[in-house]
Specification:
The chain is mainly alpha-helical and about 190 residues long. It is about 70% helix and about 0% strand. The protein is built from five helices and no strands.
Length: about 190
């Protein structure tokens, strides 16, 4: 199996990068929750200024877009903790579960922001450009950190296939053409 950058990149090993990916996602989720709660409060105050009979059914959906985004963000915390556990215990299935969740999470957030944008247009107020900016900057960074997680998971799969407990590669001598046990036996026969 071909491994992507098994020696690591950006000065980090895949194991360290996978752990930092979890910590990064926890910190980004904290920031995201702070902003989403603020955007929800802003939307609620804007909706309170609009007369209820002027608000369409689609306009009444805006808080639910934010509730969905907040719920997804809160669900990300246990997934990040599980990634840290999976890296520590070398559980590649847990790492792939994290990759699947983050992919779903980013796609769901794209849909939520797009839906919130459409709903806010119908409700006669605008969506904060910070929401689009946050989404546009988080997705490339998630892809960067997911590369570490996938690489480490593939390294674990490969090491389990070879029956090794350690992920370190064995050193092979360049000057010896046969294994040591045969070389020692052949020198003993020559009388050296």
């Amino acid at each position: 199996m071909i491994i992507l950058c098994p020696g690591g990149f950006c000065g980090m090993s895949p194991k360290a990068g996978a752990t930092v990916a979890a910590v990064y996602m926890i910190l980004v989720t904290n920031m995201y929750l702070i902003f989403e709660v603020g955007h929800l409060e802003q939307a609620m105050s804007d909706m309170a200024q609009i007369k209820p009979f002027n608000l369409t059914k689609a306009g009444k959906m805006l808080p639910y877009c934010y509730y969905t985004a907040i719920t997804l963000a809160v669900m990300t915390y246990p997934v990040c903790v599980f990634l840290i556990y999976s890296v520590h215990k070398r559980l590649y299935k847990g790492m792939f579960a994290y990759v699947a969740w983050i992919t779903f999470y980013d796609l769901a957030n794209c849909l939520v922001v797009a839906l919130a944008y459409q709903v806010s247009k119908e409700a006669w107020f605008s969506l904060s450009p910070l929401e689009w900016f946050g989404l546009a900057t988080r997705i490339p960074m998630d892809c960067f950190w997911l590369a570490f997680v996938v690489t480490y998971a593939l390294m674990i799969i490969e090491s389990k296939g070879q029956g090794r407990m350690s992920l370190r590669t064995r050193r092979i001598s360049r000057n010896v053409s046969e294994p040591p046990r045969f070389r020692l036996g052949s020198t003993a026969r020559k009388g050296v």
